[in-house]
Each structure stands twice: as structure tokens, then as C-alpha cells.
Amino acid sequence: MKRLPAPAGAGQEAGAAVPVASRLRFGAVTAGLLVALAAAVLAALALGSVRIPPREVVAALLPGAEPSPFRTIVLDVRLPRVLLGVVVGAGLGVVGTVLQALVRNRLADPFLLGISSGASTGAVLVLVLGIGTTTAVALPAGAFAGSLAAFLLVYGLARHGGGMTGTRLVLAGVTISYVFTALTTLVLVASSRPEHFREALYWSLGGLGSARWDSVWLPTVVVGLTLPLLLALARPLDLLLVGEEGATVLGLDVARFRAAAFVLVSLVTAVLVAASGAVGFIGLMVPHAARMLVGAAHRALLPVAALGGAVALVVADLAARTVAAPQDVPVGVLTAIIGGPLFLWLMRRRSVDGTEGAPA
Questions:
Q1: What is the mean pLDDT of each run of 10 residues along the chain (360 residues)?
Q2: Do the beta carbons of residue 219 and residue 272 sit within 8 Å?
Q3: Of 100, 123, 138, 356, whose Cβ has the fewest other Cβ atoms within 10 Å?
Q4: Is the CB of residue 282 less than 8 Å from the CB of residue 210?
Q5: Nearest CA to 276 among 317, 315, 235?
Q6: How far is CA 119 from CA 33, 186, 267, in A?
Q7: How far apart are CA 193 and CA 250, in angstroms?
């Protein structure tokens, strides 16, 4: 019988089977990203319509510091926004990496599942109907309800008529995305208040401007609890790299694993979209950048994707609120402007390398 090629990182024990050079490279990349994240957080807390010296930022973060206008700006305005950027960026980076492995397509992203469209529909319904709009949690709650409905529909369609496969997930996600996008447009057209269009557009483009302490805790807790679970999926994700038949021969129950991972990824994406809106291209591009740095083995790839996503979104949000200050540009606009050309370059590079259509 023809021997199946072992996927990158599959079957490796922690530390022992990993080449020393790979471990050193992973350590160097991780250290560099941690330094970059610390610098990005400090810059995001210091820069804005009011520039705060870095020394004052550090002083404001220290417990027992004297009350001051700088301390209020740092702790009550900028820190929740920066924390949300770290959480959402890290979540999207990991979710995008896992999803690309699940559907074996490196051009997939977290919004491929239609969850973003469902969240937009839920948020728009809250805006148009005025349901609890005086509370800080009304819009995220509506977005989460819509994304959960989209997830249930995609899950049901993907499992209907046979086992869940990557192709079924993609087709179901695209179908549900179109349906919910049409519903969102219908609700806005039926609305008699034109300001709903502006609010819905800003939310659907993604942004961190609404971050407050009472709305940051939920995505922080969810990502903090689920990221270790997603990181623990490294070996079965590596097995999927050889294909469904090969993964089955190597001992993986592909259908059950894919269904469980899809549920987890969908719920995390729903929480992230409910908190920040639809911030595109982070979950698509960060996994590619991470692979260029540490390779395709998920044991190293997933942590690097988490740190890279956090850095990317914090920097993008800093640019979004400073590039046209005092106007706050939706961060999804900037990620699309930057991510679009990078995506085209990536497609061209894959075509030149002869890897067009290659699985994740």
C-alpha cells in the first residue's frame, strides 16, 4: 500500500521531535511579536486627538495613581478599545487559521460561514426596532442572536444529506450569507429613518469605537476560555493537511472532529462580530503571514496567528482614529484597503509558484 505522507507537525511530541532550529525560530518570532504588541498598545494609548506622553500613560496605568484628565482618557476611553482590539484580533487570527485547515482552503476566512451577515441582520433589527437601544448591550446582543441563527442554519445545511465536508461548509456559508445580506437590506429599506442606514453601515464595516468596559468583558472571557481549546486542536488540524482519507487512516474521526471544531469556531466568531462588527481580512491574511514566519505546523502556527492578529488590529485601529482625526474611520475600511491588495498579491504568488488551489 502506498505510504501516506505525514503532515507537517503531525505526530510530533512536544519539544522532542521538533527540530532545534524550528524551536529557536518560533521563540524568536514569538518574542518579536510580544515586543511589537507591547509597542502597539503603548502607541494606541498615547496617540489620538489628545496626545499623551508615554511616561504619563505608564503612570496612569499604575494602581493608586492620582486622578487626572490623562488618567481618565487612558483608563476609561482608550484602554477598553485597545483591549478589545487585542482580543478580537487574536480571536480572528486563530479562528481564521483553524477554519482554513477545516475546509482545506487557504483563501477561507472567518466570515465565510455567513455568521457576519447574520450578525449584521440582528444588529440592524435592534437599531430599526429600537429594542433596548438605551443599554450598552442591546446591539451586541442582537448581533449575537443573528449570528447564532446563521450558525444554526449553516450547521444544519452542512450536515443535511450526508457527512459534513469542507465543500458543504463553504456552500452552506455562502448561501446563508446571501440570505441574511438580503434580509438586512430589506429591513433598512423598510425603515422610515435614514439615520439607520448610517449606523448600520458603520457597524457592518467594523469598528472598535463603541468599546466600553461593560461590553469588553464578554469577548475577553470567551476568547480567554476558547483559545486554549483551539490551540489544543493543533495535531488533528495537521492531520487534515493530508486530506480526509489520509486523516482517517491516521486515526482521526474527520466528520466528528470537523463538526465539533466548526461549532467552536462559529460561536467564537459570533461573539467577536457582536463586539466589533465585521472586521474583514484579519482572519484571512494573518494566517498566511504566520505561515511565512513559522511554517504550517499548527503547534507553532496558532500562537503566532493569535499574536499577529492582535498586533494587526491594534495598529489598524490606531491608524483608523488618527489618519483622518478627529474623524473616526471604521477600522474595517482600513483592513480592506490594506488587505485587498495583499490578497491579490497572494493569489498572484500562489499562481506563479504553481500552488493555486492547493489545500491549507
A1: 45 50 89 96 91 88 80 91 95 93 81 82 83 64 84 83 72 89 86 72 79 87 91 91 83 86 86 85 90 92 96 94 81 86 74 50
A2: yes
A3: 356
A4: no
A5: 317
A6: 31, 15, 12
A7: 58
